[in-house]
Specification:
Helix content: under 10%
Shape: globular
Number of strands: 25
Order of helices and strands: EEEEEEEEEEEEEEEEEEEEEEEEE
Largest sheet: 5 strands, antiparallel
Low-confidence stretches: none
Radius of gyration: 19 Å
Strand content: 35-45%
Amino acid sequence: EEVQVEALPVLKWKFKAGSILTKPPLVHNQNVYFGPQQISGGGYGVFHALTLAGTSAWLYQSKYFGGFTSPAIGTGAFGDLGTVYVGVGRALIALNPGGTVKWTLALSTTTASGGMFVCDPVLGIGGTIIVGFRDAMGPSGEEPEYVIGVNADGRLYWKAGVDGSISASKMAVATDGTVYYGAIGYATSSSTLNALGPTGSVKWVYSLPSRASQVVGSPTLGADGILYFGSSDKHIYAVDAKAGTLKWSFTTTLAVTAAPAVGSDGTVYVGCADHYLYAITAAGKIKWKYLTGDT
């Protein structure tokens, strides 16, 4: 069944960012937060906080070369209420609610200028900030990647090596602190969904059918304890978050690169490269699909 929707958006305001934005802003507590992911001509970017009316609340001028990640905002449970955590270049920055620097932690272990974030910051348990990071190229040509846990005061808490390359832009975190992310393996040539404990230890690894089956869509953890994610092999997967076992997979016609959203009734909503928005039941059956544009 195809759903037809007729609605036209109305522009309320626009703000000139000065560089290239490739990720959506974060709206939190009456502010809109964003920084450019690509700096026109290279150089040092500016991270912005805007009011909901589109005017500047404050800005942070980066001292690190490169673009910004999407931010995460502290909840206040560990003295970090309103703290903005954002990656830029090789450093994780914590900004106070007014935009001043709270602390800075350089994550690259190889050079002063190398390294880049491969996953946006997310909040873990105990005030931990979780990021994915690719270090600068080492003497033998490798660029190792890590999932890293940082304490709310800016101290490195744990660091887990990744077998290959992290393949999605954001990780999922469960209430017990388990961290989930997708990776393309180098040593095993397999693409995997991975679960780490709250201190970085491996809990389980779910291997997809082939290296071509990459977890290109960020995983979403549903209230039912199931992880939902899209893949380059034209499938949406549902994996048990506790056991790491497949519950079901749903076939589309093209790659699924978007992160799914899960409704209160368990319906899974996800966009696909075939121009359709899919609604899939908790049992993995099609509910409806909506054509978003010309094929």
